[in-house]
Amino acid sequence: MFITNGRTGDVYLLLAKTDTDIDPQHRGISAFIAEKGPGFTAGRDLNKLGYRGVDTSELIFQDYRVSADLLVGGEEGKGFYHVMDALETGRINIAARAVGVATGAFELAIKYAQERETFGKKIAERQTIQNMLADMATKIHAARLMTYDAAAKKDSGSRIDLEAGMAKLYASEICAEVTMDAMRIHGGYGYIKDLPLERYYRDAPLMIIGEGTSEIQRLVIARNLLKQYAI
Question: Which of 17, 20, 55, 74 could form a disulfide with 7 if both were Cys (CB 3.0 to 4.6 A apart)?
């Protein structure tokens, strides 16, 4: 369920339980390269709030068989570790996307604030709007630096559970905040589809949910901090 490019894709990474007796159970998961064909098809497309530029669907498996030759890494039971490694990269990816969406919303807002007049003054001259713009830009800058930091450590070959979790958590949360503030600055114009801002606002919640919710990120962060500061 919730498979990006589920309708249009042809080749997938398939996780399957290959050992049902081993403990803990995640050790019995293996990863395979799987292609659509007999027993493996796409199901219904999901009608999403945002991110409508890419399809998301369910996949249906009915008596599907995959060759052992397509086992990723050639070793059974390592699927969980492949997924966890991918999640690290995926969380950086989500953080980067969140920074991008927030930046797009901010740039629309600061331009509009310098064009829109109320009672003879540009709204950019009003202290309330200036405070909002300052906070938005500061949040985006901090999120961008956290994302760069996590990406640099990933490139160095280090484990980045902590840094990726922090970057994903912060960037996704500020993305939702910044897009809402940008809509407030635009007023009613931010709510209609004539401008791209409402799309940014609809896209933002996916960042909070995708690759592990904010609640999961906090657990990951806390567990790593407790290991780092163990007494």
Answer: 55
